[in-house]
Amino acid sequence: MSLTAGIVGLPNVGKSTLFNAITKAGAEMANYPFATIDPNVGMVEVPDNRLQRIDEIIPAKKIVPTTFEFTDIAGIVKGASKGEGLGNKFLENIRQTDAIVHVVRAFDDNDITSVTGKVDPIDDIDTINLELVMADLDAVNKRLAKVQRAAKGRDKDALAELDVLNKIKPVLEDGKSVRSIDFNDDEKQIVKGLFLLTSKPVLYVANISEDDMADPDANKYMDQIKEHVKGDGEVIGVAAAAEEQIAEMDEADKADFLEMEGVKEPGLNRLIRAAYKLLGLETFFTAGGPETRAWTFKKGTKAPQAAGIIHSDFERGFIRAEVMSFDDLDKLGSEAAVKEAGKLRLEGKDYVMQDGDIVEFRFNV
After folding, report:
1. What is the pLDDT along the chain (365 residues), one digit of tens a residue?
2. What own/partner pairs with CB < 8 Å and gap ≥ 24 does 280-284 have?
């Protein structure tokens, strides 16, 4: 499942540092604007302790975690929607992603240049969001001109899209995002086809200092960021520079560093899980034999389509799914105990997959 989150923000807020940490991909970094011109793309493993627990109970030759894709997009500046700073190219890169990870600087350091000359995460957020709104408004106006002509002929699809565009336009003109609008299911399908920047779900990442790692909420900027974006997206704090160092450590050094900082796990784990959840993604498992593996599916996916994630033949010839939950396996301690407790279920084509399902698909082609 190729879904990707695009990392955006003003130049020099720590986007590429964060990207390096989560992918270890060695994206170019420099202390000047537009160090990133072409987007860097990297895959990251989704941390999930359930895999290790499943392997303890149902041993396999190897463990394969699921992955998630991040794209590091060049810094956006004021006027990007009008082409400033190569803005049109960068905005198009965002349009290709499924969700936005919006990085804002939330630390003081005179040695690191700020494109605005000051540390002001609220102003940074507003600058980026306004550029995305203005880019969407331009796209909606252009689309309206085309759809209005088709709607004059009473084309049913054009009329439906026209209603949606007329619903969106005044909201954008008011400086608000498309995701702030309530749409019905039919309207959502139309909006999806418009590829609007502000329709994408967003996760705000406050790039904090190493001193705040143990308690990100204690960062002096955190409360104002949360209040400012309330209702628009979630906020988490991550010390990007420290996380990049942690990513390069071996397991022993990493454990020592985290203990010294009073941190239970790398902040990147929280970030990856938050981005994963942002897109409505969940995980099912296949266990034992050659591999115990995690698979990504979209919330609401039915069993045959989940089987198709593994192989198209599984979906085409789907018969049934043998399912147990991770919680039951973890609590009862063995497959046999799960069966004895009547917790192993046989599910058909209408079964909606649940996060943590451990599945064996039966099929015939």
Report:
1. 567 888 888 888 888 888 888 877 444 444 434 444 456 788 888 889 999 999 999 999 999 999 888 888 766 556 545 554 444 556 777 888 889 999 999 988 766 655 566 789 999 999 989 989 998 999 999 999 999 988 887 889 999 999 999 999 999 999 999 999 999 999 999 999 999 999 999 999 999 999 999 999 999 999 999 999 998 989 999 999 999 999 889 889 999 999 999 998 889 889 988 988 888 999 999 998 999 999 999 999 999 999 999 999 999 999 999 999 999 999 999 999 999 999 999 999 999 999 999 999 999 98
2. 281/1, 281/3, 281/68, 282/353, 282/354, 282/355, 283/46, 283/48, 283/50, 283/66, 283/355, 283/356, 284/353, 284/354, 284/355, 284/356, 284/357, 284/358, 284/359
